[in-house]
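$ fold --in a.seq
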Amino acid sequence: MSLGRDFRRLWTAFTIRAVGSAVGLGALPLIAVVVLDASTFQVSMLAALSAIAGAAVALPLGDFIEHRRKRPVMIAADLVRFVVLISVPVAAAFDVLTYAHLCVAGVVQAAGLIAFQAASGAHLKALIPAEGRAEANSRFEQTNWIALSVGPALGGALVSLTGATVTLAVDALSFLGSALGIRRIQQSEPEPVRREGKADITAGWRYILRHRGLRALFWNSQLFGGPVMMTVPLLTVFMLRDLGLAPWSYGVFLGLSCVGGVLGAQLAPRLTRRYGLHWMLLVFGVLRAPWLLLFPLAPDGLGGFVLLTAAETCLLVAAGAFNPSFATYRMEVTEDGFMARVVGAWSISSRCVQPAFMALGGVLAALIGLRGALWFAGACCLLSAVVLPWKAVRPAPLPEPV
């Protein structure tokens, strides 16, 4: 279906941002190692600090964004990320880059992402009528997986040819392109809700926890996203050291499996029109849950590579279909005056839970081995299916003001 010229402008901005971020994926820790010769502890702290401190900085922004027009917030978040990221290669070019500079860049980038997501969810709901939201979210999902399938390979080539800082410059410029694209949207925004009483930074979480469907999906997303992210650093070591695979195999593994996400996102609108959002959430929420349990079963050599790639691809097919359905459902059941706070609260929670799982994975790998840690991740991911919204639910009542 046609979603209009303004959606195409928004989609173009999203594509520019997604490709740039995929090219620059992992650029900050890479620069820390290659340019600053940072220790393993410093690289780990850079990732943890960026996620957790960025979430802390973004904590009061949900309430602020809710009572502002969303498009200026999205543009400002993009421009702030452009400035802070482009400062890193500039500082490196003048040989004045420091570890503290990288930490600040990581924190601001993480906070900007949360602010952008909080504003963009509410903005998309106002921009696209209800009947087009499943299609719109599916297109974003497809674009994201396509970018992830080709972007890291391009980034790796750029690192080999020109150095690590160039990939971060590409990432920074993508935010500038995104801001310019969003600026071209012409449809006027609705008036933001008026604040009644004092600012309330907990309203997003209270809204989620009072709504039976959102509450179930919230716990489901943490039990799924945390274990999946936990396997990311573990798989690198597992494939290269335990299974004896060549370094290039990890890049091929990522690229091939991301095609599954594209396929799932393509199927989502058609299946949603036929079976409905609730069916999509249940079926694909279950289908995405068991695949991590195959990871620790991988044998050495080519057989292990095939099993891991097949399992990851199947997981991403289900996730690619689930994610746009989930995003559409959250739009449908969340009141307009709470959309930014709900998305912001969700993003902040994920930004804290996922690093915690990644740290736990490192501890478990040291205690019970890589396969044991992967078994634990698979069991947690399987548990996520238990807390899906098995009963159809209605929109939540508005929380009482504090």
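$ fold --in b.seq
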Amino acid sequence: MAGGPLTPATPLAAVPRAPVDPRERRESVRERLAAADIDAMLVSSLPNIRYLSGFTGSSGLLVLGARSGDLFFTDFRYQSQVAAELDPAIDVRIVTEELLKSAREALAERGAGRVGFERAQLSYRQWSEWSEEEGPALVPVGEWVEETRAVKSDGEIDAIRRACRIADETFEFLLDSVRPGVSERELAGGLEMELVRRGAEGASFEPIVAFGERSALPHARPTGRRLARGEMVLFDFGAVADGYVSDVTRTVACGDPPGAMPEVYAVVLAAQAAALSGIRAGMTGPEADALARDVIEAAGHGAQFGHSLGHGIGIEVHEAPRLSRKSVDTLAAGMVVTVEPGIYVDGVGGVRIEDDAAIGSSGLEVLSAAPKDELLIVR
């Protein structure tokens, strides 16, 4: 790989210990409730609910008590599921009314005065209906759960590692299907099926498969466009394993690549290598972004790299931290991030190379390993 060998990550046992199980995670958030003089917190984000309770269903509301027990509200459809999945320490309420209304009534009975809510989750209608009734006052809180999720435990990183392995194997298998005449949708559909065949719970997001000039669209959606020889092919996809995701991008050429695309590929590869070898715990998001951006700008392609270098992954495919020029985040050991520089040439094609990496106390452990060391030409 251009840029020299990577610095091995510090063994994961040496990074600051993240909360391991749902009970520890709830305690971590509960400490912030007590410090803010908030009696309870409503958690309605499903990924946050899964992280804090183990529940994987699609309808539920978790209430964290600062000094009293935790409650979980759901409906009859999930009665058996919560019995199997939920931490037994949580008091489950199977209700027929709206979950938020049931939670407000229960908190009023407890005498709660101030109730925190996730400001990105509660709608204006829900806030208005709550506020019209007598009872606890709603108080917006920051991304407390998301901040706790940002630093992963050993088990969480192992799950992401498995998701990366499935993605790597799927990419190599799919290369045999890259041939003139195949459509973007056909490759995307085959990719999703292969992920599941190799053990994934599913794709972590709708895969991006883009041919030719469409590979210059960073978030292109697959279409019926068919591949011609001499075009670039961009794949951006990931797997879900044990509830955790991977997010990998590879760019190849079908036949001889057009124009300057080999040089563009070499610049992107060098930019990614600079970032992978330079990112450290304690670095800010803008500092990490600059490691790759400086290489691309020096090669004269700065205007063609319009997105950030990367983002955190975990239960969701976009989590804290952000590796961007506008980020206010500081990187810490135990975070898992994508590193994905790209150059996009309108009317010709684009190149993006993306890997997932766990931040150790000194350097990164790159978790994904699909081939990338040179522009792969599929004949």
